[in-house]
Every structure is written in C-alpha cells, then in structure tokens.
Amino acid sequence: MLRHVSLNAEAFYKSLILLGFSAFLFLLVKSNNIIYYINPRFVKLTEAAAVLILLMFLAQAGSSLRRTSGAHSCRHYGHGINKLTFLPFVITLLMAFLLPNNTLDPSMADNKGMNLGARPATSGQYSPTPAVQENAPNAQTDNSNANNQGYAAQAQSLLRSKIDELQKAGLIKVTEDNFTLVTNEVNIYPEQYVGKEITMLGFVLKEKKFSAEQFGLARYVITCCSADAMPDGFICEYKNAAHFKEGDWLNIRGTIQLGKYEGNTVPIIKIATFSKVPAPQNPYIYPVYY
Questions:
Q1: Rg (CA), the chain
Q2: pTM of this structure
Q3: How far is the CA of 36 from the CAs of 14, 193, 224, 286, in angstroms?
Q4: What pLDDT digit, counting tens, does each position of 251-288 carry?
Q5: What's domain 150-285's superfamily in CATH?
Q6: 64: closest CA among 105, 102, 16, 99?
Q7: Which residues of 46-59 are buried (b: 16+ CB within 10 A; e: fewer)?
Q8: Residue 73: what are its φ and ψ, rounded to 5°?
C-alpha cells in the first residue's frame, strides 16, 4: 500500500513563526544588540528562551507532516484556515528584522524626568537579613537563615568599602560600574560630599523647573529592560548652560555644592571644565548590586 505525506498548513505556518522568533532572539544575542533592550544579566534567560522556542518549532514542524495510506489520501488538509490570524505575528517579525536597533532618544527623558526623588538605601539605610528567631522550627531553617545572614554581611561589607572609597576620594570619577552607587549615595547624603570634585559623562537634559544656568546631566539606567529605563544623574550649573542643546553629550569636571530642587536639598555640580563628546556606543547604565 502506498504511503503519502500530507501537509497541515496551519501547523506549518505556526512552525515558521516559531522559527522566526527563535532566529531573531539568537541574532540579537549573537550581534550583542540585545543590550539595547534588556539588562545583560538576563541574556542567559533570553538564550534559554530562544532554545525553547526552537524546540517548539521542531515539534510543530513535525506535527505539520502526516503520513497517510491509500491512493486517494488528502494531501491538502488545513486549507480552510484563516490566514489573517497569523498576520499580527508576521508583521511583528518583519518589524523586528527590518527596523534598526536604536537606543532611547534623550528627548524621551522629558516624559520621565530625572530621578531626583526617593532612592534605594545605601550606606546609612542598608538592612541585613533579620536575625534567626530563638524558636526556629528546625536545624535546616537555622542553617538557611545563618547562610542568608552571612551573604548579607558580605554584601554590606563590600558596599561599605565602596562607599568609604567615595568619601575618602578627593576626586570622584563616575564610571559605568559605579554610576548608580555614586548617584544614590551623593543624592541621599549630599552634605557628606560638598566640596569634592567629580567627573562624569552624560547627556544634557533640560526641565522647565531648572534655572537658566542649570541643566541635568544624565544617563538612562536599565534595571530590567528598556521599558523601565529612567534618566538618572545630577543637576549641573554653568553660566552658559543655554548654549547646550538637549541630548548633547558632555564630559564634565566640577565641584559638588548644595542647592534646592522642588524645596529639597540636592547636590548640584558647579562645572569647571567640559568637553562635548560623541554618544557612547552603549549609552545605558546597568545597576551593579553589591
């Protein structure tokens, strides 16, 4: 008896869509463009997702082919499907492959505003894991809590040493690695850093609440993905600040002073020197957790 292979068109289209998404994720990771969309610490999860989708493609592709027996077997079943149901997925894939990978425009920061409000705890507010209760249910819980306390103590010790370096430094050099540590610490405890010199790279951000001589110098901080990106940095003062355009990238050196913003005491960098520079290849900052 003859055996024929018939094609399930619906399953076949689904398998092609899965292959497209898997290929796109692999391409993003391979080209390193993935860092424009998510924090690098999630790249491994993206690779795992790409592999999982690839396995789903293989399973779906296998189910799209069926062997049938008989000379009059139907080789075209699945022709009654509504192909428009696949249109949103096809459009999404076309946009993903054809549109360029661009970073967030500095002008988008106008809608978000600079992060000058509440911030995560640093030196003065760091809370280690609570102590083990006296009546712990069993030894295993005791050991788990003890380990957690140990990890918290190590993290607190490392954080404390980093902050001690900042407080002892005559010149604070803001880098991609210590960016969030410096902005958090100096914005929460500005009095401890008054008079210190600081160097920093960032883009110009202007707000209506700033005076004519003020502007924000910021970087986008991505905790998870580009959707939660927030401009973070410092208010700067320069007599010719009006000459700077929003989105200009500056490498500045100045002195930390105290000022007022919306009734709160905030650090303000009095700029001594600056230079206009091109935007870095990757303008984002990814928080480092100690």
A1: 27
A2: 0.76
A3: 28, 33, 11, 11
A4: 999 999 999 888 889 999 999 999 999 999 889 999 88
A5: Nucleic acid-binding proteins (2.40.50.140)
A6: 16
A7: bbeebeebbebbee
A8: -70, 150
Structure-derived torsion over alpha carbons of residues 252, 178, 232, 266, reported in degrees to the nearest 10:
-80
Looking at residue 77, its amino acid is: Y
> Residue 261: which region, alpha, beta or left (left: phi > 0; alpha: psi -120 to 50)?
beta
Cα separation of 203 and 276, whole Å? Answer: 10
Residue partners of 85: CB distance under 8 A and separation at least 6: none
Domain positions in the chain: 3-102, 150-285
**CA pair distance 280, 164, nearest whole angstrom:** 29
DSSP letter for each residue of 140-203: HHHHHHHHHHHHHHHHHHHHHHHHHHHHH-SEEE--TTTHHHHHHHHHHSGGGGTT-EEEEEEE
Q: Give pLDDT tens digits for 56-100.
A: 999 999 888 766 555 544 455 555 677 788 999 999 999 999 999
Q: What tokens were used for 115?
A: 């992060």
Tokens 């709160």 found at: 264
